[in-house]
């Protein structure tokens, strides 16, 4: 997402979040005696994807402006930028069964592919990892999507 024309990215290395979260999880150096509610929102990736300047994903752009080839291109480009080697497979998965006549669903496919990879899947993996932590077997963990 953009704020003041700058991309938003998580920041760590300060008082609030001194260490990168993935490192903290790997080392198990976090407060394990907590109850936690975590989750993501439907279409959470759309706000991020729209900041990449894909005009065809804009809500003001007609659904007919999106076609299967563009959706594949956008997904593969996004995953290439993230240095993920299997962008084509991701594009195939998210556009399976869609045609050029499915403009709205193709827009959602691009947003969902990005959002799932960057937000939803890591959040679910975090919860699964936390749930396996011995101290958390007695605590409440809940997820929402």
TrEMBL record:
Supply the InterPro entries for this chain.
AB_hydrolase_fold, AChE-related_enzymes, CarbesteraseB
Q: Which GO terms describe its molecular function?
A: acetylcholinesterase activity
Q: Return the SUPFAM superfamilies for the record.
A: alpha/beta-Hydrolases
- Please give the biological process terms from Gene Ontology that the record holds: acetylcholine catabolic process; choline metabolic process
Q: Which Pfam families match?
A: COesterase
Q: Is the keyword Repeat assigned to this protein?
A: no
Query: Which cellular component terms (GO) are annotated to the entry?
Result: extracellular space; plasma membrane
Gene3D superfamilies assigned to the protein according to its UniProt record, in alphabetical order: alpha/beta hydrolase (3.40.50.1820)
- The Carboxylesterase type B domain, residue ranges: 7-133
For this UniProt record, give its keywords in alphabetical order, as a comma-separated list: Glycoprotein, Hydrolase, Serine esterase
Regarding protein family, the annotation reads: Belongs to the type-B carboxylesterase/lipase family.
The name under which this protein is listed is Carboxylesterase type B domain-containing protein
């Amino acid at each position: 997402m953009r704020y003041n024309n700058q991309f938003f990215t998580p920041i760590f290395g300060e008082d609030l979040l001194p260490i990168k979260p993935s490192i903290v999880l790997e080392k198990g150096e976090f407060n394990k005696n907590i109850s936690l509610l975590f989750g993501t929102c439907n279409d959470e990736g759309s706000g991020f994807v729209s900041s990449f300047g894909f005009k065809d994903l804009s809500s003001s752009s007609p659904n007919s402006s999106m076609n299967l080839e563009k959706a594949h291109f956008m997904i593969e480009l996004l995953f290439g930028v993230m240095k993920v080697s299997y962008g084509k497979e991701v594009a195939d998965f998210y556009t399976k069964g869609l045609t050029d006549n499915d403009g709205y669903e193709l827009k959602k496919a691009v947003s969902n592919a990005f959002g799932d990879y960057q937000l939803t899947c890591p959040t679910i993996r975090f919860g699964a990892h936390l749930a396996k932590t011995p101290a958390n077997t007695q605590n409440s963990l809940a997820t929402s999507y």
